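User: Okay, second chain of the day. Same drill as before: sequence in, structure tokens out.
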Amino acid sequence: MVLYGNVDIREVNLGFRVAGKLSTLRFDEGDTVQVGEVIAQLDSEPYQLQVANASASVKSLKALLKLKETGNRPQEIAQAKAQVLEQQAAVTNTTKLLQRAEKMHSINGISDQDLDNAKANAQETAARLSAAQQKLDLLEAGFRTEDIAQTKANITQAEATLASAELQVKDTILTAPSAGVILTRAQEVGAILPTGATIFTLSLQKPVWIRAYIHEVDMGKIHPGTVVDVYTDSRPDKPYRGQVGFISPRSEFTPKTVETTQLRTSLVYRLRIVVENPDESLRQGMPVTIKLSHQPATERATNSL
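Assistant: Same drill. Structure tokens below.
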């Protein structure tokens, strides 16, 4: 049985996940690249500055957390205690002055205004003592659990921002996801690119597939795993090895690219043949002829070793 089809090589449009100014292009159309190889770069300085800013925020929040977990310094607590003692002495003094003023006022020794002034001084010093005592209590109690938890949450958020900024720096470097050949170079150095703009179109070296079609009456002669020989016009005496990898469960009309008069207007089933030993001679869209091999797959695999 003979089938006809075309070479189907996957192509990938490559671009950056971040926007920026294109600073480096290392390949041109027709160049071969290997998996993981750096093929282009953006100016990373704006993203480096974001990393520095996010890193500073993390350090600042961690220092704040350490302060809250450690509590206030002994010197600050000692100073607050001294202020409380000072205000207590002032309260004692103004209380005595008020008592004297009340006695003098009872015998008309001072005016009503003087008595009111003494009362006001006593109330003011009492209020200052209360404020100083509350400040001391807060310093001795330290920071609230809720404050510490909030600071920890802020640190987690800042660390996530830092991680995102670091990832953006990495995304300014474009690497080849697979080995292949550069088909199209769509940009030039200095271009300001939006996110996802295509830089290169890469034709993958593997896998190389053959897209072919089979008539319904021949469906019983072929199945997934069937070994086939793939012939091209440029090397009719040296077939490529291949195996049927997929047969469509749905019928369709034969595409115009299949130039056989028997199948051109018939309902057929699409199948995909995986070429086991592709080389650079197989090009996208190249017409091929497929013939069933009489050699079992296991034997073919052994002979290829």
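The mean pLDDT is 85.

User: Thanks, on to the next one.
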